[in-house]
């Protein structure tokens, strides 16, 4: 029987060793290099007006498609396909001049007709664009000549130019844009292997400054561990947005990798239903906000990363102000406020908690913090799908948690019909005035006033601002750090 | 045999029909609304209604089922609600990952389990038989994803011998890279699966070793290998084939976890994603193909069992 044993052992050894292979460590010259990017946001389809999701913005915005304007990684709005623009005195008519010599990847020259059609795709009835409602003020688009576009608005909108940075200028004659692409950007769409990769190749006929690398491959992962393992084995060069705090330890103190913390716009909210008792009382909301030690919560989840902001406005927005002192952590003040709000003995409420990280952890923390002031929290764990139906659509909740990812979204507090039901006529008016403001300075000033009121009334409790973390190989440079609105510009990335 | 084949085929078709109804009905009992995956925070009621209309989910369930069934019969699995891409080609694109993964894992598991199971039975009274059996029992308790992570840590992160996951963008047109990408997932599947197979092989072998016919054959002067080959193998095969069929089917479905751990673009990862998004046509399509595969494997297993042991047919006359 000894021989049988040996055979079994040998066979197993053979099977295990038959699998050679090895890491790909070959050095590359940077202009010819392909950048391998790891992400958890695979596009649903390739069209950002057909519910393509944030993955499509990450991979294609600024890389394959361009807008009349560009929202830079620093948060400023710069001209791109529109070299110049003028606005009429009443703020209702905008005239844009298009850049010269711009062609689509298919070779067709860009004309004002493409711009008109592209804006109309976003505002169309079938559009699923997140910008559809912001661009609802567009009344009419005219194309006096091939290089000029005139847009008439139904009301002044100072955010109009900013909003245009989300509008892709597409060749509408290109066919089905959910599976193909025809833009004006520095990269052409290579191949999209659904469930795995999406590749971009350098557009050598690009009208502007050409990309500094030969192309990029976005590798998509559903599992954060698999994503980080890919970076550790050099299968990818950079992770666009690290979602798992636990994973950072293996990159810290390792000279082969660089952890970059950028400016995030993602806020974790404890959102009260401001319509229902006892959260219809300002004092109660302030009491709950003051009773939760946000700094401790953030630290326990993200360690040294992330920030407190004390309001809905992240530092990347032009109207940011540090409001962490408003409703700062103070258990005694919380008890006093609770009594003022008519709940001296505390109360019980249900916290609808999305079932994915970090919400369950945060909910448990909030529960123990609020116990200190006699408030009992009943945690109700729900799926994101249930959240959307129960909380967002039916408003059937007392309090909930949610992360709000967009920049410039304090304006939702000006809408009394929004899911959290915050209603303050002054705020609504300030938000409206800000949108009709003549200058950006005036807009900023008005939104600062609004945000201050919102924070003082503790419309919600802004628990913390997520960190925006890009982890990359040390050999890589030129990648965007802030990933504003999920954009990830590839053209400046260099591999040494 | 012919009568049995006809009856068994009819049963296969009936199961498939029943499964399609159950599938459709179960999905619609789940809470949640596919329209949610399409819209972001800020959507108005009108947008929600429009999206629902464009998806066709505002129609009665019966009407949705009939039109789905009509399409399936013509091999049209519909289009994803989310991506708008046709489901059939999407599934076809995933099969070159899932099928080799499952089959290779299965074959490797059999290659491990048959000799090890036999040894565990043959040496049951000695020191090494119980050890083998113990290791197999232990293997049963190990979750597939944990074993996968362990293998990745050792062979990918530490030894740098194999990739940690992913599948080459070029797919099978880069056969070396494709095979390399599948090595660790295949070993993971094989190890997990062989643990349970070993127990069955061992039990079947023990039965045969203790059987009267084997003792008779030995008494008539046959050597053990000859007696095993002529009489033992067939008798041990029938129960093992039944288990193999079930195991193959389980592996096909269990690849979901492995595909996620190793970031493989297979049917499993497609299904996980579709479920998260309530993408009914995709879930239905993947489940239908999987159900068909499971039923077909069961069908083939039953036939193989009767070929190996014709005594089983007698009950059906």
TrEMBL record, chain A:
<dbReference type="InterPro" id="IPR000914">
    <property type="entry name" value="SBP_5_dom"/>
</dbReference>
<keyword id="KW-0732">Signal</keyword>
<protein>
    <submittedName>
        <fullName>Peptide/nickel transport system substrate-binding protein</fullName>
    </submittedName>
</protein>
<feature type="signal peptide">
    <location>
        <begin position="1"/>
        <end position="20"/>
    </location>
</feature>
<dbReference type="Pfam" id="PF00496">
    <property type="entry name" value="SBP_bac_5"/>
</dbReference>
<dbReference type="InterPro" id="IPR039424">
    <property type="entry name" value="SBP_5"/>
</dbReference>
<feature type="domain" description="Solute-binding protein family 5">
    <location>
        <begin position="76"/>
        <end position="407"/>
    </location>
</feature>
<dbReference type="InterPro" id="IPR030678">
    <property type="entry name" value="Peptide/Ni-bd"/>
</dbReference>
Automatic annotation (TrEMBL), chain B:
<dbReference type="InterPro" id="IPR045621">
    <property type="entry name" value="BPD_transp_1_N"/>
</dbReference>
<keyword id="KW-0472">Membrane</keyword>
<keyword id="KW-0812">Transmembrane</keyword>
<keyword id="KW-1133">Transmembrane helix</keyword>
<feature type="domain" description="ABC transmembrane type-1">
    <location>
        <begin position="95"/>
        <end position="301"/>
    </location>
</feature>
<keyword id="KW-1003">Cell membrane</keyword>
<dbReference type="Pfam" id="PF19300">
    <property type="entry name" value="BPD_transp_1_N"/>
</dbReference>
<feature type="transmembrane region" description="Helical">
    <location>
        <begin position="103"/>
        <end position="122"/>
    </location>
</feature>
<feature type="transmembrane region" description="Helical">
    <location>
        <begin position="134"/>
        <end position="157"/>
    </location>
</feature>
<comment type="similarity">
    <text>Belongs to the binding-protein-dependent transport system permease family.</text>
</comment>
<feature type="transmembrane region" description="Helical">
    <location>
        <begin position="282"/>
        <end position="304"/>
    </location>
</feature>
<feature type="transmembrane region" description="Helical">
    <location>
        <begin position="177"/>
        <end position="198"/>
    </location>
</feature>
<protein>
    <submittedName>
        <fullName>Peptide/nickel transport system permease protein</fullName>
    </submittedName>
</protein>
<feature type="transmembrane region" description="Helical">
    <location>
        <begin position="236"/>
        <end position="262"/>
    </location>
</feature>
<dbReference type="InterPro" id="IPR035906">
    <property type="entry name" value="MetI-like_sf"/>
</dbReference>
<dbReference type="Pfam" id="PF00528">
    <property type="entry name" value="BPD_transp_1"/>
</dbReference>
<keyword id="KW-0813">Transport</keyword>
<dbReference type="InterPro" id="IPR000515">
    <property type="entry name" value="MetI-like"/>
</dbReference>
């Amino acid at each position: 029987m000894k021989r049988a044993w040996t055979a079994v052992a040998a066979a197993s050894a053979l099977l295990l060793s038959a699998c050679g292979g090895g890491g790909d460590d070959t050095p590359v010259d940077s202009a010819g290099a392909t950048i391998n990017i790891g992400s958890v946001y695979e596009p649903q389809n390739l069209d950002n007006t057909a519910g393509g999701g944030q993955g499509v913005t990450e991979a294609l915005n600024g890389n394959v498609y361009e807008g009349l304007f560009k929202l830079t990684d620093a948060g400023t709005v710069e001209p791109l396909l529109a070299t110049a623009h003028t606005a009429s005195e009443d703020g209702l008519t905008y005239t844009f001049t298009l850049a010269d010599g711009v062609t689509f990847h298919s070779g067709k020259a860009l004309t004002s007709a493409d711009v008109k059609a592209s804006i109309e795709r976003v505002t169309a009835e079938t559009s699923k664009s997140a910008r559809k409602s912001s661009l609802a003020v567009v009344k009419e688009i005219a194309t006096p000549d091939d290089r000029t576009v005139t847009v008439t608005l139904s009301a002044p909108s100072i955010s109009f130019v900013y909003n245009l940075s989300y509008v892709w200028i597409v060749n509408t004659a290109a066919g089905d844009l959910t599976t193909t692409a025809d833009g004006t950007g520095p990269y052409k769409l290579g191949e999209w292997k659904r469930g795995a990769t999406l590749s971009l190749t350098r557009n050598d006929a690009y009208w502007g400054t050409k990309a500094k690398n030969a192309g990029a491959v976005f590798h998509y992962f559903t599992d954060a561990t698999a994503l980080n393992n890919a970076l550790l084995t050099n299968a990818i060069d950079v992770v666009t947005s690290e979602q798992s705090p636990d994973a950072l330890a293996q990159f810290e103190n390792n000279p082969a990798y660089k952890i970059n913390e950028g400016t995030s716009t993602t806020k974790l909210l404890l959102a009260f239903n401001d319509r229902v008792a006892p959260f219809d009382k300002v004092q109660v909301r302030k009491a709950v906000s003051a009773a939760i030690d946000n700094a401790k919560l953030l630290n326990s989840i993200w360690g040294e990363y992330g920030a407190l902001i004390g309001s809905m406005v992240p530092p990347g927005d032009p109207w940011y102000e540090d409001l962490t002192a408003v409703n700062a952590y103070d258990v005694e003040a919380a008890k006093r406020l609770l009594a003022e709000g008519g709940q001296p003995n505390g109360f019980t409420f249900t916290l609808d908690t999305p079932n994915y990280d970090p919400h369950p952890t945060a909910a448990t923390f909030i529960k123990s913090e609020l116990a200190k002031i006699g408030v009992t929290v009943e945690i109700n764990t729900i799926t994101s799908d249930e959240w959307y139906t129960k909380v967002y659509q039916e408003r059937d909740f007392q309090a909930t948690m949610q992360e709000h990812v967009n920049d410039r979204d304090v304006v939702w507090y000006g809408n009394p019909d929004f899911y959290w039901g915050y209603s303050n006529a002054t705020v609504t008016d300030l938000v409206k005035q800000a949108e009709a403001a003549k200058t950006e300075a005036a807009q900023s000033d008005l939104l600062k006033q609004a945000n201050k009121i919102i924070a003082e009334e503790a419309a919600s409790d802004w628990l913390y601002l997520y960190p925006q973390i890009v982890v990359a190989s040390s050999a890589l440079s030129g990648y965007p750090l802030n990933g504003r609105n999920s954009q990830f510009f590839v053209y400046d990335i260099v591999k040494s | 045999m012919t009568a049995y084949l006809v009856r068994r085929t009819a049963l296969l078709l009936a199961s498939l029909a029943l499964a399609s109804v159950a599938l459709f009905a179960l999905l619609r009992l789940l809470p949640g609304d596919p329209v949610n995956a399409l819209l972001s925070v800020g959507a108005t009621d009108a947008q929600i209604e429009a999206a629902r209309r464009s998806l066709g989910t505002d129609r009665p369930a019966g009407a949705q089922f009939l039109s789905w069934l009509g399409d399936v019969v013509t091999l049209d699995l519909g289009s994803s609600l989310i991506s708008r891409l046709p489901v059939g080609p999407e599934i076809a694109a995933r099969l070159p990952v899932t099928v080799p993964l499952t089959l290779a894992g299965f074959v490797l598991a059999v290659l491990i389990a048959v000799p090890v199971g036999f040894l565990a039975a043959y040496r049951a009274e000695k020191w090494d038989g119980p050890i083998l059996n113990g290791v197999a029992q232990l293997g049963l308790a190990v979750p597939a994803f944990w074993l996968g992570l362990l293998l990745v840590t050792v062979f990918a992160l530490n030894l740098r011998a194999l990739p940690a996951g992913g599948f080459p963008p070029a797919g099978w047109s880069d056969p070396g890279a494709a095979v390399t990408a599948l090595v660790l997932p295949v070993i993971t599947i094989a190890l997990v699966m062989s643990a349970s197979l070993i127990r069955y092989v061992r039990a079947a072998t023990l039965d045969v070793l203790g059987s009267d016919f084997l003792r008779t054959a030995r008494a008539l002067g046959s050597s053990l290998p000859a007696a095993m080959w002529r009489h033992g193998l067939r008798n041990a095969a029938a129960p093992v084939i039944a288990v193999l069929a079930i195991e193959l089917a389980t592996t096909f479905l269990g690849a979901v976890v492995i595909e996620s751990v190793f970031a493989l673009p297979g049917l499993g990862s497609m299904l996980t994603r579709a479920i998260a998004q309530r993408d009914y046509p995709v879930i239905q399509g993947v489940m239908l193909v999987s159900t068909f595969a499971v039923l077909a494997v069961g069908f083939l297993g039953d036939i193989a069992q009767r070929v190996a042991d014709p005594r089983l047919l007698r009950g059906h006359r």
